[in-house]
């Protein structure tokens, strides 16, 4: 398989760093060793083909952003490996940063308020020597045009822009390093519907013109359905189902996916009168034993409470992690 | 006459660079047990409308005109004291941001029973029973335990449900919910919508639901008002509006939503962006972004009403 | 009646054998010595009724009979012997050993007689013994600081008994009704420590205290405008003077006008020294700056003290003469100088230096004035040089003739510095004159008072004529008190309840 | 009708976006909106000018001991001196210095010390605070304990030690003040930097492959400026008062080169006499100076807060 | 929590050691204390003898080593000036200092917080301007100045309060306190007020800023939407949220009140630690200075710890992470 990006058993756990003293204290029994870890991402193996858009869907807090950050080289993984175009990219190198860029969820927080647009866009390129300072103004102007902004905005500050415009600046910044792969972490969630449409169009345009590959993180199913070629569903740090978009929306296998799709409000569907899935996303601090979804699953069996289902290929290129398939 | 009648409500903000009419002559009425959806882009004045109905517009804003009749009472003439009686008891509100609307240093239970106790003399223990019931109703598991928790110990979805529980403890006649699910996940959002539906049906509470996403209110609301730049550009029963939008802006909102049918195609997006309230174009505020605009649009379009529907456009889309 | 005294200094120790003037001021109410000092520091009988020289190195003291300590014990010769020996052997930085270094032995030669042998002739021994408190022997050798502070061993024979000492706040005393002498009118006497002058003044003005010590001109106006306050003052033994570097050819703080080192030390030229002497504006400083808190000085001790020479007149302030002298000495354009002073030790010390800087600048010696806290100043002035020698070139110090006798300042300031013999301890300019040394040494062993005084006067004159030091002024001690009291001023600046009485007219 | 849908419209209609304005211009404009703040700024500017021009406009050089005489001491305002017929507009102090000249020269020192020490402390504290926030862990712990240590060391002891080690002088006093103040800045910067470090734009910079030193100084530091400016103006006022207290205790400036603080504490002794001018005039000057600095800082706090900016 | 405290103390032990070294070196740098201790006319010989009796004749590093060894055995040395154990000298003054510091803190809280909240709740009113104006004056005026004015006005002219010193004390739980009687309180009020003036100004400013910030928060509007109003809104909803930054600031200030109120203490002749340290520094009374600095550092550590605990009490959000 000629995957562009591949992750193997990628995991990330967060735990409070403990001081030498605390460790010593627990060693001599003075303090309880009650260190808890959050397994934000747990053994995720995925691959993305060149030119593909992989949608990553899941509830808030299930580890989507963490996964995206690891792929973009912002966060080092605790375990597992990332391969980019056949080369190991587990530890972020400059080359890797140049290849993989990220667009963040919140256009208000992801732009440094003290830098001008031209600085925001050209700084890294200049730093990495891709761009000569003398060429910077043209470079910035052409990027701004690509994302549909007037080049005259180059010397403004982020606060002078609306949310949609800021997200475009963030995209321009990501493009400035000429990446092959872009991680879009909920890049449209904060925007209202008409601006969201503009940005989605922009992503599609760029895909066409530059051949970009996307990891598209969202919890908005309508958006994912619109943009993604394949969709991975994540629950509590694990992938529970992954297949192409059509299959997911037509014949989802995992109960969680089914619930998600049923719950999503949509204009073209008839009035939904079913009772949505109940219960909260369990805390990642103490995930339930067995299948993490079992407390909310209507079809859960006793096996689900004890044994973790593995991700299995249930149809060609359709993977799902559910005991009910056995 | 309905439970709530709003006539020509105007709310202004006095800023150093001029006076902004954030709510500009809006009128609607709402009957008991009914749900009204208010839809519009960011900045179109939805929240200000909600605050105006609660008389919670903070300086530099103020309500500049219009009438609000609630159960036959003119709220515009209500005293401060009367408002303190009404708020939280007869009219309740759920805020946009679940993370910010609960006091971080008070226990959930205290915040909820406070709402009850400041309006009704009752024993703490009986208040706690009521609160517990309210929490149960909004689908919070183990409510007794949760009452001892602080807001930060709950997830966003739970917090928003607590805020909704807070709105229902006094069984108000009207609940105003300002984008209560925008920050939430689909599954949580679905739960909340479901509970709201049950609530209006069971206790006859009227509901105003504010959002920018038409698909969210579609299953919930009876009527919809579409707002743009402080004005209502279209209003009427929900199904009719979604099926036959007359105002180009409503059309644009509907078309902007991605769905299976648009896959692979370009999404429609309304050109331009919301004009700043201080420099609204003369006439129809939407005209600069409108593909159908003509010179006639430079005067304010009147309200065109046919039976239950109304729109403000000289060139309505005629799908029939 | 009660008496409350606002006292500038804080008592730091309750052991009367720890040397500290302010402590002694308080403890003389509780303890007495063989000899007492009157207002002018002349010796008068106290626990000893009389004393005499048996020979030039033997003194005999007759003790007052029937004196009891506050714990009821009767004072005996053994107690005196114990006390003097204790004072001689006490360890620690502040002891009376300097004053007792002449003592060879103390022997009890009768029930009421103590004989003291000295190493050599020691004419000032009675004065020195006036500083040594007599304690009951019963307190033992082991009495600690703590025992004194809590009152466990705080027994004297004085007119007041120790009641309590609250650190940093006050010492309370009560009348000793078994006192051998005249009974005191005050039932309770409190020394309230109030270090800052404005606070002391306002305590008096607000009636919190009856009397304050160390009142200066700064607060006089408010006393004058209040008609409830009276003031009394006297010249004290504290002399402020300038010392000059005389031991280095190249004094570090004297430079040519261009900032280069000078070829030779100008202070070794008597004309330069005389120029300084003439430039000093004593009257100006005393009247304008000290505003009566000082008296111009021409020698080591003020009038009325043993060794004062009335013939030594205060040198006139004469800038023209000073300039001429400088020119004669070969410095028509003067030179550059940094003068050093403390700024927290003596009354107005920094300001006085500034005023001196003014006049020196006016005669052409471009003067920088450097002032610093005494904590820094003392060490540098004494041993701040590269190899432990005094650092400064021209600097100000103060010295007090505690026993009312000019011999002590002469020995400490005017005599050549002699580390081994312990002479010239304060001679930080290292002034040295054979003539002066001879006179001073001779005086220190002359038992005849008249002859000794003449020798001391001659020594003082020699120093002043040679400008070994530049005397500036004697500080005055001033007390302010509510009207209705009478206060006997003392030239040691001590505030004694024994000298304070309710005036008869007020009663 | 979808066919008529225009392509993504480029949003560039000028009305939608506020006109570009350099940030400092906006700052100035926002700042000058408040009349009180403008007056405070004007007052400070005036004081600075007057202080700078002191050698030109002062009637006397108060540092030249030869031109000052004790015989002219404590002359009330406006009365001719004993020797000459010059009159002293604001009177003379206890050493016979012309008060007006002394105040002008004192202003120079006070402003210089306040401003310079705050700036130096700011530079030092900023670097230390950033380093602590950047490296975290042990280095952070060590630096923060040092800050604790510094904060619990009395200024007077530091000043005294420096005085003893280095001698007396404006530069040494300045040094002492910097040593006493840097810890405040370090704490502030560290706190602000730790908050900023969590923000998404920092992740964005990491994602661009920028090294962390550059991120600290180019990206995080500028965002900590607002609280720093406010601390700095407060500290300036504080430094001036601290210098006054140090001089009051005799461990500050040389007696012959008085700052405002020293003038006041010298005059302090005259509180009980009716020579009000000796401490009142410098006191008034100091109060005006410190109040105007504080008002400026106060208002800067408002202006620099993006939340309050609308 | 105990773990937290021990950890802090262990961490601080290193700092305290460093502090002792700094203080030691600092005092040595200032000058040789011996010249301040002996009688002015003492001869060189006597000086040397005295130096030997205090161990000052040894090289500095050896003196420090000796100090460390003794300190390890709990002996921080005897004051050169008072000839008493430095620690007991300091501890003796702690009650007076704490009494003054806490009274000042009390004033700044009961005066500063209400005024600050009032100012913060009426952002445009004249009352706010008046309060904020006064608070600027409070920040500006030097303490020694204020103290004297207070004395002049309240004790000399009006005669309401004594001008200085500490009043009669009674022993409560073995600690001498003066605030139990009116007579004792009278002595306390002026210095405490002087000391608190700057803190009041500080608290007003912090409270005002906090109140403004908090009252703009969504949850306050939400509370108003529930019908909460008036004093309940202020006390139950705004105040607890405003308190958090104030507690931090006051914690730091309390440390300063305890350790460095020297100017006030000397003007009012209040027998506290501040007066002791300034005297000791100026007399180069090294054992006292070193012990003092070590003790104040401990006090700071302790106060910071208490502040952290208060944080947890005030802000439940921090509790979950600290557990
Ligand atoms: N720096 C961190 N330290 C500790 N825990 C973290 C950290 N970052 C994330 N987590 C935890 O990891 C889990 C996954 O977080 P992540 O942000 O990846 O979720 P998400 O799926 O992106 O959620 P959202 O939709 O809200 O953005 C969460 O439980 C979160 O609390
Ligand atoms: N305090 C204020 N001062 C000035 N103008 C204000 C203020 N609050 C709101 N406005 C103006 O009122 C208009 C409507 O704001 P409102 O918050 O009601 O929008 P909204 O429809 O709720 O948007 P969103 O979907 O983003 O919540 C905005 O254009 C805004 O500029
Ligand atoms: Mg995320
Ligand atoms: Mg809103």
TrEMBL record, chain A:
InterPro entries, per database record: AAA+_ATPase, ABC_transp_ATP-bind, ABC_transporter-like_ATP-bd, ABC_transporter-like_CS, Oligopep_ABC_C, P-loop_NTPase
Protein's recorded name: ATP-binding cassette domain-containing protein
GO-annotated molecular function: ATP binding; ATP hydrolysis activity
PANTHER family linked: D,D-DIPEPTIDE TRANSPORT ATP-BINDING PROTEIN DDPF-RELATED (PTHR43776:SF7), TRANSPORT ATP-BINDING PROTEIN (PTHR43776)
Domain of life, source organism: Bacteria
GO terms for biological process, alphabetical: peptide transport; transmembrane transport
SMART domains reported in the protein's UniProt record: AAA
The family this protein is said to belong to: Belongs to the ABC transporter superfamily.
Domain ABC transporter: 5-261
Record bears the keyword NAD: no
Keyword Nucleotide-binding found: yes
Automatic annotation (TrEMBL), chain B:
Organism: Noviherbaspirillum saxi
CDD domains, per the entry: ABC_NikE_OppD_transporters
Localisation: Cell inner membrane
Gene Ontology biological-process annotations: peptide transport; transmembrane transport
Pfam families with a match to the protein in the record: ABC_tran (PF00005), oligo_HPY (PF08352)
GO molecular function, one term: ATP binding
Name of this protein: ABC transporter ATP-binding protein
Membrane topology label: Peripheral membrane protein
Listed SMART domains: AAA
From TrEMBL, chain D:
Keywords: Cell membrane, Membrane, Transmembrane, Transmembrane helix, Transport
InterPro entries: BP-dependent_transpt_permease, MetI-like, MetI-like_sf, OppC_N
Membrane topology category: Multi-pass membrane protein
Keyword Transmembrane: yes
Residue stretches making up the ABC transmembrane type-1 domain: 107-297
Coiled coil: none
Top-level taxon of the source organism: Bacteria
Subcellular location: Cell membrane
GO terms for cellular component: plasma membrane
Family: Belongs to the binding-protein-dependent transport system permease family.
PANTHER family: ABC TRANSPORTER PERMEASE PROTEIN, OLIGOPEPTIDE TRANSPORT SYSTEM PERMEASE PROTEIN APPC
Protein name: ABC transporter permease
Automatic annotation (TrEMBL), chain E:
PANTHER family listed in its UniProt record: ABC TRANSPORTER PERMEASE PROTEIN (PTHR43163:SF2), DIPEPTIDE TRANSPORT SYSTEM PERMEASE PROTEIN DPPB-RELATED (PTHR43163)
Membrane topology of the entry: Multi-pass membrane protein
Name of this chain's protein: ABC transporter permease
Organism for this UniProt entry: Noviherbaspirillum saxi
Keyword Signal: no
Membrane-crossing segments per the record: 100-122, 134-156, 187-207, 242-270, 290-314
Record localization: Cell membrane
InterPro entries with a match to the protein in the record: BPD_transp_1_N, MetI-like, MetI-like_sf
GO CC field: plasma membrane
GO terms of biological process kind: transmembrane transport
Gene3D superfamilies per UniProt: MetI-like
Lineage: superkingdom: Bacteria
Principal subcellular localization: membrane
Family of this protein: Belongs to the binding-protein-dependent transport system permease family.
Ranges where the ABC transmembrane type-1 domain occurs: 94-311
């Amino acid at each position: 398989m000629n995957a562009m990006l591949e992750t193997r058993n990628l995991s990330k756990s967060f735990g409070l760093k403990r001081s030498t003293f605390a460790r010593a204290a627990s060693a001599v029994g003075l303090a309880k060793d009650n260190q808890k870890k959050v397994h934000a991402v747990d053994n995720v193996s995925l691959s993305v083909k060149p030119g593909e858009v992989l949608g990553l869907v899941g509830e808030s807090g299930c580890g989507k952003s963490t996964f995206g950050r690891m792929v973009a080289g912002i966060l080092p993984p605790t375990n597992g490996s990332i391969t980019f175009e056949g080369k190991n990219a587990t530890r972020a190198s400059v080359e890797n940063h140049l290849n993989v860029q990220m667009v963040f969820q919140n256009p208000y927080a992801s732009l440094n308020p003290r830098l001008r647009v031209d600085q925001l866009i050209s700084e890294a390129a200049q730093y990495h020597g891709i761009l000569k300072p003398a060429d910077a103004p043209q470079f910035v102007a052409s990027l701004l045009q690509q994302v549909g902004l007037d080049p005259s905005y180059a010397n403004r500050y982020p606060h002078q822009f609306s949310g949609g415009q800021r997200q475009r600046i963030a995209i321009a910044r990501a493009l400035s390093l000429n990446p092959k792969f872009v991680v879009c972490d909920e890049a449209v969630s904060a925007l209202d519907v008409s601006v969201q449409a503009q940005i989605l169009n922009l992503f599609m345009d760029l895909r066409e013109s530059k051949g970009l590959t996307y990891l598209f993180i969202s919890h908005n199913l309508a958006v994912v359905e619109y943009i993604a070629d394949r969709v991975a569903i994540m629950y509590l740090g694990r992938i529970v189902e992954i297949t192409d978009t059509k299959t997911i929306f037509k014949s989802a296998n995992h109960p969680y996916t089914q619930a998600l799709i049923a719950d999503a409000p949509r204009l073209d569907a008839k009035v939904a009168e079913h009772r949505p899935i109940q219960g909260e996303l369990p805390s990642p601090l103490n995930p339930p034993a067995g299948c993490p979804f079992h407390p909310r699953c209507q079809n859960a069996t006793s096996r689900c409470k004890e044994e973790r289902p593995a991700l299995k290929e249930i149809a060609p290129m359709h993977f799902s992690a559910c005991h009910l398939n056995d | 006459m309905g439970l709530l009648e709003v006539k020509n409500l105007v709310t202004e903000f006095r800023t150093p660079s001029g006076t902004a009419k954030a709510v500009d002559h809006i009128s609607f009425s709402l009957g008991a047990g009914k749900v009204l959806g208010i839809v519009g882009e960011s900045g179109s004045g939805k929240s200000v409308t909600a605050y105006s109905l609660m008389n919670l517009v903070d300086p530099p804003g103020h309500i500049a005109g219009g009438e609000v009749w609630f159960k036959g009472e003119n709220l515009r003439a209500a005293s401060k004291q009367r408002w303190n009686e009404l708020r939280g008891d007869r009219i309740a509100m759920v805020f946009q941001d679940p993370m910010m609307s609960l006091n971080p240093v008070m226990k959930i239970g205290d915040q909820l029973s406070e709402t009850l106790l400041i309006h009704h003399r009752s024993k703490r223990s009986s208040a706690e029973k009521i609160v517990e019931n309210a929490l149960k109703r909004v689908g919070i598991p183990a409510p007794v335990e949760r009452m001892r928790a602080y807001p930060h110990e709950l997830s966003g979805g739970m917090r928003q449900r607590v805020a909704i529980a807070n709105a229902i403890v006094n069984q108000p006649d009207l609940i105003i919910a300002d984008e209560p699910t925008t920050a939430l996940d689909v599954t949580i959002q679905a739960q909340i919508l479901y509970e709201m539906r049950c609530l209006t049906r069971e206790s006859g509470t009227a509901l105003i639901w504010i959002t920018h996403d038409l698909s969210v209110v579609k299953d919930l609301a009876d009527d919809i008002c579409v707002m743009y730049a402080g004005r209502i550009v279209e209003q009427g029963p929900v199904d009719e509006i979604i099926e036959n939008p007359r105002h180009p802006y409503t059309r644009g909102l509907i078309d902007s939503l991605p769905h299976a049918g648009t896959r692979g195609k370009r999404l429609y997006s309304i050109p331009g962006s919301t004009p700043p309230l201080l420099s609204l174009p003369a006439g129809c505020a939407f005209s600069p972004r409108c593909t159908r605009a003509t010179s006639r649009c430079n005067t304010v379009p009147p309200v065109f009403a046919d039976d239950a529907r109304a729109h403000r456009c000289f060139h309505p889309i005629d799908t029939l | 009646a009660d008496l409350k005294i606002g006292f500038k200094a804080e008592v730091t120790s309750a052991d009367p054998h720890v040397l500290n003037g302010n402590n002694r001021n308080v403890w003389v109410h509780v303890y007495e010595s063989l000899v007492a000092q009157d207002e002018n520091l002349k010796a008068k009988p106290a626990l000893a009724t009389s004393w005499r020289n048996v020979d030039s190195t033997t003194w005999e003291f007759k003790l007052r009979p029937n004196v009891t300590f506050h714990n009821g014990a009767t004072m005996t010769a053994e107690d005196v012997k114990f006390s003097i020996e204790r004072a001689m052997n006490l360890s620690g930085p502040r002891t009376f050993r300097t004053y007792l270094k002449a003592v060879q032995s103390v022997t009890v030669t009768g029930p009421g007689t103590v004989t003291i042998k000295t190493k050599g002739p020691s004419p000032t021994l009675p004065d020195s013994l006036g500083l040594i408190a007599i304690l009951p022997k019963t307190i033992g050798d082991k009495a600690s600081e703590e025992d004194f502070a809590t009152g466990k061993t705080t027994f004297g024979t004085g007119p007041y008994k120790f009641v309590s000492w609250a650190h940093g706040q006050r010492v309370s005393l009560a009348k000793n009704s078994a006192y051998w002498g005249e009974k005191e009118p005050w039932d309770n006497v409190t020394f309230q420590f109030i270090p800052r002058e404005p606070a002391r003044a306002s305590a008096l003005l607000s009636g919190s205290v009856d009397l304050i010590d160390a009142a200066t001109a700064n607060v006089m106006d408010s006393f004058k405008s209040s008609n409830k306050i009276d003031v009394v003052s006297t010249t004290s033994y504290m002399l402020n003077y300038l010392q000059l570097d005389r031991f280095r050819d190249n004094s570090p703080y004297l430079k040519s006008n261009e900032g280069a080192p000078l070829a030779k030390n100008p202070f070794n030229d008597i004309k330069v020294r005389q120029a300084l002497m003439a430039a000093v504006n004593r009257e100006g400083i005393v009247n304008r700056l000290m505003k009566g808190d000082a008296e111009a000085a021409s020698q080591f001790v003020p009038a009325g003290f043993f060794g004062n020479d009335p013939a030594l007149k205060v040198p006139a302030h004469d800038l023209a003469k000073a300039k001429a002298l400088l020119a004669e000495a070969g410095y028509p354009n003067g030179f550059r100088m940094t003068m050093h002073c403390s700024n927290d030790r003596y009354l107005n010390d920094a300001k006085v230096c500034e005023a001196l800087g003014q006049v020196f600048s006016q005669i052409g010696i471009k003067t920088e004035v450097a002032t610093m806290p005494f904590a820094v100043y003392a060490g540098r002035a004494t041993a701040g040089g590269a190899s432990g020698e005094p650092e400064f070139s021209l600097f100000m110090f103060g010295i007090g003739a505690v026993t009312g006798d000019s011999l002590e300042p002469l020995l400490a300031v005017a005599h050549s510095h002699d580390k081994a013999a312990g002479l010239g301890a304060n001679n930080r300019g290292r002034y040295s004159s054979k003539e002066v040394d001879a006179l001073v040494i001779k005086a220190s062993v002359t038992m005849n008072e008249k002859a000794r005084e003449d020798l001391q006067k001659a020594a003082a004159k020699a120093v002043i004529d040679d400008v070994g030091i530049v005397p500036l002024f004697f500080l005055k001690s001033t007390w302010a008190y509510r009207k209705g009291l009478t206060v006997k001023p003392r030239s040691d600046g001590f505030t004694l309840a024994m000298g304070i009485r309710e005036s008869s007219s007020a009663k | 009708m979808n066919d008529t849908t225009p392509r993504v419209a480029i949003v560039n209609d000028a009305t939608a976006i506020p006109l570009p304005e350099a940030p400092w211009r906006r700052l100035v404009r926002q700042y000058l909106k408040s009349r009180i703040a403008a007056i405070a700024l004007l007052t400070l500017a005036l004081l600075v000018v007057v202080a700078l021009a002191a050698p030109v406009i002062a009637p006397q050089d108060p540092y030249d001991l030869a031109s000052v005489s004790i015989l002219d001491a404590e002359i009330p305002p406006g009365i001719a001196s004993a020797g000459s017929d010059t009159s002293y507009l604001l009177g003379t102090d206890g050493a016979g210095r012309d008060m007006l000249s002394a105040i002008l020269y004192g202003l120079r020192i006070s402003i210089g010390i306040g401003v310079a020490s705050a700036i130096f402390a700011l530079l030092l504290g900023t670097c230390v605070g950033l380093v602590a926030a950047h490296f975290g862990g042990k280095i952070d712990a060590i630096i923060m304990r040092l800050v604790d240590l510094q904060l619990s060391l009395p200024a007077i002891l530091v000043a005294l030690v420096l005085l003893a080690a280095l001698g007396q002088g404006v530069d040494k006093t300045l040094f002492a003040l910097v040593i006493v103040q840097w810890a405040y800045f370090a704490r502030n910067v560290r706190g602000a930097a730790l908050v900023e470090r969590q923000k998404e734009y920092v992740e964005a910079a990491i994602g661009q492959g920028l090294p962390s030193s550059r991120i600290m100084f180019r990206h995080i530091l500028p965002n900590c400026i607002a609280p720093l400016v406010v601390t700095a103006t407060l500290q300036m006022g504080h430094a001036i008062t601290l210098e006054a207290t140090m001089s009051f205790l005799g461990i500050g400036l040389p007696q012959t080169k008085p700052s405002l603080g020293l003038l006041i504490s010298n005059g302090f002794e005259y509180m009980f006499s009716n020579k009000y001018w000796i401490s009142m005039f410098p006191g008034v000057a100091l109060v005006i100076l410190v109040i105007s600095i504080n008002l400026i800082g106060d208002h800067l706090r408002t202006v620099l807060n993006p939340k309050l900016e609308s | 929590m105990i773990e937290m405290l021990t950890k802090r103390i262990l961490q601080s032990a290193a700092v305290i050691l460093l502090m002792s070294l700094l203080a030691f070196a600092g005092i040595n740098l200032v000058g040789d204390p011996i010249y301040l201790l002996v009688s002015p006319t003492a001869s060189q010989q006597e000086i040397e003898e005295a130096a030997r009796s205090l161990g000052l004749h040894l090289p500095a590093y050896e003196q420090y080593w000796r100090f460390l060894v003794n300190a390890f055995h709990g002996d921080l040395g005897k004051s050169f000036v008072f000839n008493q154990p430095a620690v007991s000298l300091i501890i003796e003054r702690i009650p007076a200092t704490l009494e003054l510091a806490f009274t000042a803190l009390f004033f700044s809280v009961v005066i500063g917080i209400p005024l600050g909240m009032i100012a913060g709740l009426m952002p445009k009113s004249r009352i706010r301007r008046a309060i904020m104006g006064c608070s600027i004056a409070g920040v500006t005026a030097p303490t020694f100045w204020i103290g004297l004015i207070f004395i002049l006005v309240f004790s000399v002219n009006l005669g309401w309060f004594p001008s200085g010193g500490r009043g009669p004390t009674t022993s409560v739980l073995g600690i001498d306190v003066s605030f139990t009687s009116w007579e004792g309180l009278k002595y306390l009020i002026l210095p405490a007020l002087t000391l608190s003036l700057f803190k009041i100004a500080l608290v007003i400013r912090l409270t005002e800023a906090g109140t403004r910030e908090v009252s703009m928060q969504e949850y306050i509007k939400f509370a108003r939407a529930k019908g909460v109003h008036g004093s309940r809104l202020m006390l139950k909803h705004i105040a607890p949220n405003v308190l958090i930054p104030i507690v931090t600031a006051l914690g730091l200030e309390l440390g300063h009140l305890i350790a460095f109120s020297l100017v006030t203490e000397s003007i009012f002749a209040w027998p506290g630690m501040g007066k002791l340290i300034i005297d000791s520094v100026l007399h180069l009374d090294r054992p006292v200075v070193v012990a003092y600095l070590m003790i104040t550092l401990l006090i700071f550590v302790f106060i910071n710890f208490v502040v952290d605990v208060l944080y947890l009490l005030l802000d439940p959000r921090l509790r979950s992470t600290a557990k």
